Amino acid sequence: MAPYEALYGCKCRTPLYWTEFSEKKLHGVNLVCETEEKVKVVRDSLKATSDRQNSYADLKRKEIEFQVGELSPRFIGPYEIIERIGPIAHRLALPPELDWIHNVYHVSMLRQY
Questions:
Q1: I need a labelling partner for 69 at 20 to 30 A (CA). Which of 1, 60, 95, 110 fits?
Q2: 35: Cβ–Cβ under 8 A, 6 or more apart, which residues?
Q3: What is the Cα–Cα distance from 111 to 65, expressed in whole angstroms?
Q4: Torsions phi, psi of 82, nearest 5?
C-alpha cells in the first residue's frame, strides 16, 4: 500500500488514474516520458536553488577550532577550555558562582581571547 493510500484511505490521483474506469486505454511511453521530464525539471530547479542558498550561507560560515587551555570570552569574561568534546563542543572551567550554568558550549558561542 502506498503511503498516500494508507494515510487518506484512497488511491492517489496521479495521471494514471485520471481516466474513467470504464475506459480501457493503455497508457503509453509518452506519459511516462513526459512525467520523467517534468520530474527532471523540478529536480534541477531544486538543485539550483539549494546550490544558490548554500553559496550565500558559505560566505558567512567560517571554520573555528579551539584547543584545550585556550581562553574564550563571551559576555561574562574569559574562561579556560578544559575539554574538547567533539569538533564543535567545548567544556569551560566556570567559577563556582556560575554552577547553575551548563559548562559545555558550541564553538559558535566562543571567541578567542
A1: 60
A2: 15
A3: 10
A4: -100, -20
Do residues 46 and 76 both lie within one domain?
Answer: no
Q: How far apart are CA 85 and CA 88, in angstroms?
A: 7
Domain count, the chain: 2
Q: Answer whether residue 5 is part of any domain.
A: no
Band (pLDDT 50/70/90 cuts) for residue 51 is: very high
Residues 77 and 98 in one domain: yes
d(CA 74, CA 97): 16
Are 76 and 111 part of one and the same domain? yes
Q: Model confidence over 52-82: pLDDT tens digits?
A: 998 888 887 777 777 776 665 445 678 888 9
Integer angstrom CA distances of residue 60 from 15, 48, 56, 110? 44, 19, 7, 16
Q: Are 2 and 12 in contact (CB under 8 A)?
A: yes
Amino acid at 12: C
DSSP code at position 45: H
